[in-house]
Amino acid sequence: MKKTLLIIILLTLLASFPANAQCAMCRAVLESGEGGQSAEGINNGIVYLMAFPYLLIGIVGFFIYKSRKRAKQEEVA
User: Is the pTM of this model over 0.90?
Assistant: First the structure.
């Protein structure tokens, strides 16, 4: 069961597709401008800002898992 869950999580993380992550207002402003450098920069910034909350939740979850595992081992011993 644990191995299957780990495989599903890994496949989900590896099967990401690039996306244009702009809100409607940002898209309208950037489409009116010349060149695509600013649009690409905005997209990258949005993706980076989106990634950090997930990383923080993952780190907190890891420490909770680690502390529960340690507590369980101390309970058995």
Answer: no
